[in-house]
Design brief:
Number of strands: 12
Radius of gyration: 20 Å
Strand order of the largest sheet: 4-3-2-1-5-6-7
Structural class: alpha/beta
Shape: globular
Number of helices: 15
Strand content: 15-25%
Bound molecules: NADPH dihydro-nicotinamide-adenine-dinucleotide phosphate, magnesium ion
């Protein structure tokens, strides 16, 4: 029985993780749940899962109400609560499916407790890649990718040698505006941006898919997970999201992992590895439904944040943390209809340019760069608002 600590339980990856666990109750048990503000959903989940002993929520008031309703549970709150969950001894694997930079510290805490981590929270690697890799090496535990592209690569690497890889090929759907020119992006709405053609995901990653910031994050994530140089990581547009990613070897053979766009597959593989378990699919994949698959090169001018991510990745230091924080803040402002879609790109680029570079940041430096980038973006947004108002 594998005991799971699940952060981000009420989100898109979190609820699909619960679905996987409920399908294999003889193998997996969730003993702790981290949620944010969706208490209704959390209470529904608590009805379904009988082995939960620990819970954390974003706010203290919610934690107090929950303590009265569930006196047998240990309840934490805030970012400290996520850290406390990750630091508990009695679990085997942390599934980190919280969104945003706040996922980094729990990832580090779990590793420091000698726990394996199944990682959806790519921000952990974008902002703190070197810290996470160093901790993994020191504690000799495993990091299993949940992100579909990285799970695909991980699967394509089985039985092969990393040293014989020629390149990794990450596929990208192109997001909600893939058929728009840059001119057409000027007046797009939040509603349009949230309508992803292939995947049903949380708000932030859906917007990040439309700007391709997400693909940029994934390039950095791949660099750390598979220890491969940036010039051996290629991105290709593949609008159907059937091939989840590929590995090309030195002998020119290419391995691809494919199937329906269903995140439960990579989630389950991260939990069951090296075994494969059965899965009830909502929509089993049939090749005959896809007589044609499309592949096109990415235009870096169309997607400047993808180009920026390669640059940031190569320069390392605190730039990943700055880029992530600026994007996190800008996306929140866009979702709140306070800035335009194109402002997101502008603000992220400016933050990366203006916030002081630190070559070998400590965790404290990373936390500080994150704060600086957020303030910087908020400042830009309010200056623009004042100018317009
Ligand atoms: P969602 O927005 O659907 O879920 C985010 C989760 O984080 C929710 O459980 C939310 O809680 C929780 N959360 C938010 N704020 C806080 C907080 N202050 N304290 C504690 N918990 C908080 O996101 P996704 O599931 O889409 O994404 C999660 C992660 O997985 C991201 O890093 C994303 O990049 C990655 N990922 C997602 C994929 C997908 O298909 N969705 C694919 C690949 C990677 P609540 O709702 O209760 O407020
Ligand atoms: Mg992905």
């Amino acid at each position: 029985m594998k005991k799971i600590m699940l952060l981000g339980a009420t989100g898109s990856i979190g609820t699909q993780t619960i679905d996987v666990v409920l399908q294999h109750q003889d193998q997996f048990q969730i003993i702790g749940l981290g949620a944010g503000k969706n208490i209704k959903k959390l209470m529904e989940i608590l009805q379904l899962l009988k082995d939960v002993q620990y819970v954390s929520v974003a706010n203290q008031e919610d934690a107090e109400v929950l303590s009265q309703t569930y006196p047998s549970l240990t309840i934490f709150y805030g970012d400290e609560g996520l850290k406390q969950l990750a630091s508990i001894q009695s679990y085997d694997v942390l599934v980190n499916a919280v969104v945003g930079f706040r996922g980094l510290v729990p990832t580090l805490c779990a590793i420091e407790q000698d726990k394996d981590v199944a990682l959806a929270n790519k921000e952990s690697l974008v902002a703190g890649g070197p810290l996470v890799m160093e901790a993994l090496k020191k504690h000799q535990v495993c990091l299993y990718p949940i992100d579909s592209e990285h799970s695909a690569i991980f699967q394509c690497l089985q039985g092969n040698k990393l040293s014989q890889v020629d390149k990794l090929i990450l596929t990208a759907s192109g997001g909600s505006f893939r058929d728009y020119t840059r001119e057409q992006l000027t007046n797009v709405t939040v509603e349009q941006a949230l309508a992803h053609p292939n995947w049903d995901m949380g708000g932030r990653i859906t917007i990040d898919s439309a700007t391709m910031m997400n693909k940029g994050f994934e390039v950095i994530e791949a660099h750390y997970l598979f220890d491969i140089p940036y010039d051996q990581i290629e991105v290709i547009l593949h609008r159907e999201s059937i091939i989840h990613s590929m590995v090309q070897y030195q002998d020119s053979a290419i391995m691809a992992q494919l199937g329906s766009a269903d995140m439960r597959v990579p989630i389950q593989y991260a939990l069951s590895y090296p075994e494969r378990l059965s899965m009830k699919q909502h929509k089993p994949f049939r090749f005959i439904d896809y007589p044609t698959l499309h592949f096109t090169p990415v235009d870096f001018k169309r997607y400047p944040l993808l180009a920026l991510a390669y640059e940031v990745g190569k320069k390392k230091g605190n730039l990943g943390a700055i880029m992530n924080a600026a994007d996190e803040e800008a996306v929140a402002l866009f979702l709140n209809e306070q800035i335009t879609f194109l402002d997101i790109e502008e603000y992220v680029q400016q933050a990366v340019q203006h916030i002081p570079y630190i070559e070998h940041p400590t965790l404290e430096d990373i936390l500080d760069s994150d704060r600086q980038a957020r303030n910087f973006v908020r400042e830009l947004a309010s200056r623009k608002e004042n100018m317009n108002g």
